[in-house]
Q: What sequence folds into this?
């Protein structure tokens, strides 16, 4: 054990080099943002006051965290026991998603040390006020939902039992609160853009932006959960029945179809159909989004060959996630470009900061799966990190 | 309703001398260089369109999008008319910049402690009985200030006298503003925005009004679902269809 540990630490693999590079770039971006200011760290301007940090960090971050509440509701409220093995992983993905959103806020807000202001300074007429409360409350709910994974590792049996019993009492209430808060929150992120009437391109502006954001978040959240599960099985010593992935994959298709139908009806009701065939950058972005998010996945998920092959399913889910991100970036950037009169391309430091936050979230997920009981494992986890475990094995 | 103050800008009378810009910079202590566009140090500017001089500034909407957007209530429509900004509350989210249908608020992008900057119609001066600095400085009477109803009547009177486009810009836009423009050239040619006619907060009010419904109906629905699930489980258990109760989190670990 003692001989192998240093070897484990010192190996420089390709992935570790990439992570180091991302963190280095992210740290510089952090320095630029806080020591040099927005003007040096971003390409944001008055006509384009929200850029990549809102579009990718917040809108995609929250949207892709929708898997947790969906799976929790399926298991606890609908009694779909077959999803239970992946429940903790789904909740962890959501919790890390929300944590990265909050970390991203520190970059995005001009005065981040005032992030607590909405707790005491209320404006019930503001969609963003509701969003901020949903983030606060739902992050708390997710932390509580996830807490047993940490608490069960506490060595004091009395404390452990007391907490887990208490947790069991409130669990269903937590799950219900989570579903309501998530639904409100996902919807209200779209609701933020209701005020851009006259500015946002007709391909994306709709009085039903709230519904559209909600409907698109659930399949996207499930898709990223499938991706996380697949990667865990591939590289983290996790033993999972591939049928569960197919089960989740099977749910994504009807959800995407529902979204697609709602979107088409909505576009025609808003008189936006003529814009579908115009030769413009907006229209091209629109088709990219719809192709990736709705059309391609619907075709692919219909093929049993794809659904039942974990690797194909993984790439199909990647397509869904890509299309979802295209949608959020289209609403927050592409669709507002023409009316703003500026062509916004994020500065590299904007990418670097977001990438660092996401990379750290992935790292935490990785180590949580390795050291905690998140997913069923091929060998007991203790063997990997405690001497006692190693002794027990011997 | 209380009487509120409003500004009328008569584009036919503006000679482009930029006295308003200078006066504005002076009362705010900004550097005196002339700027082409609104900026954190230029809260009003004169833009030239088609040989006409058009003054840009905050429109002080009756129901401002920015004030409804601001999550901490830093932006407020005061009872005296101006839309004011409380820098002490602002967290720098910049949703007001996104929301403003006239694209007026500016952000101090190059500062390390950045705030939003926009015209507040010299609310403090007006509270002391003084006119806004820009209006006071105008040598031709192109900008005038007064009670909103009287200012609207005055605009009407001038349009009726002839020589103007028959439209008061700001009387209908976003449900009405507190800065009005009258012109002898159609507003579309002068680069004026064409925002929605209804008050902007209406756009989000419906969604926000749904919150209690979602919480109540959603909560009820979920409790119902949970009850059904539990019931089915206990029935199955009683009928011997499943042998053991489902595992709890405790047993999992």
A:
């Amino acid at each position: 054990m003692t001989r192998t540990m240093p070897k484990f630490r010192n190996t420089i693999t390709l992935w570790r080099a990439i992570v180091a590079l991302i963190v280095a770039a992210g740290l510089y971006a952090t320095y630029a943002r806080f020591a040099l200011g927005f003007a040096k760290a971003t390409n944001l301007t008055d006509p384009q006051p929200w850029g990549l940090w809102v579009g990718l960090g917040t809108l995609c971050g929250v949207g892709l965290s929708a898997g947790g509440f969906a799976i929790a509701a399926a298991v606890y409220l609908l009694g779909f026991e077959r999803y239970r093995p992946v429940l903790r992983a789904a909740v962890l993905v959501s919790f890390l998603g929300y944590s990265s959103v909050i970390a991203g806020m520190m970059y995005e807000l001009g005065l981040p040390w005032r992030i607590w202001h909405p707790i005491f300074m209320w404006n019930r007429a503001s969609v963003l006020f509701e969003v901020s409360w949903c983030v606060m409350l739902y992050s708390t709910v997710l932390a509580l939902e996830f807490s047993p994974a940490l608490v069960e590792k506490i060595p004091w049996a009395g404390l452990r039992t007391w907490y887990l019993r208490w947790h069991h009492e409130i669990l269903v209430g937590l799950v219900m609160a989570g579903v309501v808060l998530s639904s409100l929150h996902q919807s209200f992120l779209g609701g933020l853009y209701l005020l851009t009437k006259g500015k946002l391109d007709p391909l994306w502006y709709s009085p039903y932006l709230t519904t559209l954001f909600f409907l698109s978040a659930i399949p996207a959240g499930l898709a990223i959960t499938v991706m996380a599960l697949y990667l865990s099985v591939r590289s983290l010593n996790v033993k999972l029945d591939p049928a569960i992935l197919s089960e989740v994959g099977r749910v994504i298709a009807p959800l995407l179809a529902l979204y697609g139908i709602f979107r088409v009806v909505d576009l025609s009701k808003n008189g936006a159909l003529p814009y579908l065939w115009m030769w413009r950058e907006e229209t091209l972005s629109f088709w990219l989004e719809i192709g990736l998010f709705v059309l391609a996945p619907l075709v692919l998920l219909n093929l049993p060959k794809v659904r039942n092959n974990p690797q194909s399913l993984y790439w199909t889910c990647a397509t869904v996630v890509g299309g979802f991100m295209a949608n959020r970036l289209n609403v927050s950037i592409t669709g507002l470009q023409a009316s703003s009169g500026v062509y916004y391309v994020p500065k590299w430091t904007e990418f670097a900061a977001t990438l660092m936050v996401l990379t750290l979230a992935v790292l935490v997920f990785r180590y949580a799966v390795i050291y905690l009981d998140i997913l069923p494992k091929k060998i007991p986890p203790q063997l990997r990190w405690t001497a006692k475990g190693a002794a027990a094995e011997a | 309703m209380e009487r509120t103050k409003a500004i009328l800008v008569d584009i036919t009378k503006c000679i482009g001398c930029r006295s308003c810009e200078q006066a504005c910079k002076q009362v705010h202590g900004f550097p005196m260089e002339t700027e082409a566009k609104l900026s954190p140090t230029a809260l009003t500017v004169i833009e030239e369109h088609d040989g006409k001089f058009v003054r840009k500034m905050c429109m002080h909407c009756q129901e401002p999008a920015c004030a409804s957007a601001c999550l901490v209530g830093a932006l407020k429509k005061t009872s005296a008319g101006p839309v004011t900004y409380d820098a002490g509350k602002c967290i720098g989210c910049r949703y007001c910049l996104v929301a403003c249908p006239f694209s007026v608020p500016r952000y101090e992008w190059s500062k390390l402690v950045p705030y939003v900057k926009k015209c507040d119609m010299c609310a403090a001066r007006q509270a002391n009985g003084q006119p806004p600095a820009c209006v006071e400085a105008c040598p031709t009477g192109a900008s005038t200030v007064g009670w909103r109803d009287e200012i609207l009547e005055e605009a009407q009177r001038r349009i009726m006298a002839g020589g103007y486009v028959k439209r008061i810009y700001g009387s209908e836009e976003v449900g009405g503003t507190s800065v009005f423009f009258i012109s002898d050239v159609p507003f579309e040619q002068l680069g004026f925005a064409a925002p929605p006619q209804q008050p902007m907060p209406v756009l989000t009010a419906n969604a926000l009004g749904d919150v209690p419904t979602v919480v109540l109906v959603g909560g009820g629905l979920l409790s119902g679902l949970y009850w059904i699930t539990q019931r089915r489980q206990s029935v199955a258990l009683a009928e011997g269809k499943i042998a053991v109760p489902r595992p709890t989190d405790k047993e999992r670990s």
